[in-house]
Structure formats: C-alpha cells, structure tokens
Amino acid sequence: MLDGIISHQELLRRIDALRVERRLIGPVARVEPECMPPVRYFYQPVERADELALDFTYCVQSPKAVLLPPAEPLLRFDRESGKFRAGPVIDHTPTALIGVHPCDVHAIELLDAVFSNGNADGHYLARRRSLFIVAVDCPEPCTEGVFCRDMETHETDRGFDVILYRLDADRRYGVVFASDAGRAWLNPSLSSGGMRTPNSDDERTFIRYRQNKERAFEPRLPMPRRELPEMMARSYDSLLWEATAQRCYSCGSCNLACPTCYCFDIRDENELNGGGCRLREWDACMARDFALVAGGHNFRAKPGQRLRHRLYRKAAWIEAQTGLHGCVGCARCDRACTAKISIVEMLGQLAEEVQHAGTRP
Ligand code: SF4
Ligand code: SF4
Predict the structure, then answer these.
(1) 11 lines ligand 1 (CB under 6 A)
(2) Spatial separation of the C-alpha atoms in residues 131 and 105, rounded to whole Å
(3) How large is the average pLDDT for residues 227-244?
C-alpha cells in the first residue's frame, strides 16, 4: 500500500526544504569518458536537490562511508601546561542520505546491528541517529552481474525513513513511510499540488510495478539463499580457493567496495608537541597482513585462505552471528576486482562441486 504520490518537481522542492537543517548527500553523475561506463554515480554532498541523479543506476562506492568514514579521528589528545587531556570526537551532523537502493538499505541494517550489539560504537551510532534515509526502489537490476534477487535484498520494507517507487516515465513517485520523521517530511495532507494521497488507479499502477519488477529480476545462483550456509559447510576443503586465489593481488579492493565489510584498524598519530589523535581506518581481510599478529605469525598467510575466509563470512558466518545479510548481492566486489574474481561465479562453482559430490556413487 502506498502512503502518497509525489511529482518529481515537488520531491525536489521537499528535498531542498530538508537542506535547511541537514547536510544533503546523494548520487551525483560524473562524466569520465576514459572510464567504463563513461557516466558513473558517486555519493557526495550537494547544495541543491537538482544536483542529485535520482534515476542513477548504481553508485560506485556504497553509502557505507557516510556512516563509517574510510578514516576518522576517534579521539584527540593534547598536552598543555604539563596537563594531558583526551576527548572523543563525535560527529552529530544532521544528514539526509537521498537515493539508497534496497540492497544498500539491507547493508546499513547489518552495520547498525554490528555497531550496536555488544560494545556499542558511539561514533557510528551518533552518525546513524543523525541520519535521515530516503530509499529509492529499483524497478529492474541496476546493472549486469548483480545477484540481489538471490540474496533477497532487491526489495525492503524497513531501514529507511521514506522509500520512493518510480511509477512511470513522468517521474511520478509512489511513497511509503517507515518513520514518523519520513511522514512529517512528505505528509500528503500538507498537499501542495505535487503531493497527494493515492487513489485506486495509483494502487493498480503500483501492483503492476511490482509484477514487472518480479519478472525483471532473474536468479543467478543455482540454489536459494537459505542453502548457502550448508553449501559453504561442505566446501571448506575445495580446491577452488587456491586455484582462484592464484589470480588475486591481495589488494583488498573487494573489501573496500563492499557495503557489508566493516573491519577497521586503529592507530595513534602523535605530534611533536605531545598531542595527536587516534584514527580509525577501514581494513581489508584480503590484505596480506590483515591476520598478522605479534611474533610474526600470520594465521591466513595464503591468498586462498583469505579468499575462503571472505566468502565464508559473506555467505554463512555473518548471517549466523546476526541473522542479517552478510552479502547483499550488489556485485561491487566483482566490479572492483582487477583480477576479475567474481563472488557470484565462485558461489555458482561451489554449488556445482557440492551437487556433483552429492551425485557421485
Ligand atoms: S560481497 Fe560483493 S556482492 Fe556481496 S555485498 Fe559485498 S560487494 Fe556486494
Ligand atoms: S579485489 Fe580481487 S585481486 Fe583484489 S583482493 Fe579482492 S579478490 Fe583479490
């Protein structure tokens, strides 16, 4: 059921109204003729709603960086007049993140769980509590290679304040609210011509939208998502790990591009005057020294061990720990990999291996 119908123009007007009290971040088109594709989209701060490309295909980087910056100071310390002082750096900047596809909404839900459970992370949670999320549904796969349908992340009904469904070529959006803040922002009763409550024609259009969407997303994996953990449990000794990892450069690009990778490292930067800051930076389990510990032992020294570890986390372990998606099927890792190592191809190959093993006499 839709909560409202809004025109593109009215939507832009309401986004501009958000700008009064919030920083705006959303997909912006960058034309780079030397790149493939030559028009790519990136999340970045904007001053005006009409800078946003709401009909973007996919953003090269996920919105993870808005909540967990690649490098951020956790605390600053200094020494003045012989006294040592230290204090946390917390970012509460009110922010509206406009244009998050369902797969990335699922990824943010995972980050929320990871950074809230156990030792709650005040730095992440301060940003998250200051964040207003406007999701934009995908009527069809955003690009080749995605497998969000297999991971059941091509749609979502939570984890955002408002979701928009582009119902027709006139850029008329169906609106669904998931929070009071979302309802207050686009309240249909504050009708101003471009925003209204839905009628029965709109609901019929929405049903057709969902039927077309269902047809547009084809499965790419040979088994349903619920069978992945069992398949992985039977694949630990597969020869595929080392065979595929021969091409791997251990660059960690797959980790950095991934919306559900959340590992980080912490180091202190000291200044000559005795002050400095404690920095948190993204880390990558595919990097050679990720599992290097004191004494020089590396408990995942081989690239094949690291590749296996990454896929086990994505296809089994994160879900076992959190009940949420460890992988949302966005295929950013596949696109980022210069060695053309593909997670969805590997999962398919492992499934074949397991099926053959099961039919062997
Ligand atoms: S593992 Fe790859 S496909 Fe899965 S969420 Fe991360 S980047 Fe996307
Ligand atoms: S991006 Fe590709 S080459 Fe780089 S670490 Fe990941 S799998 Fe290996």
Answers:
(1) no
(2) 13
(3) 96
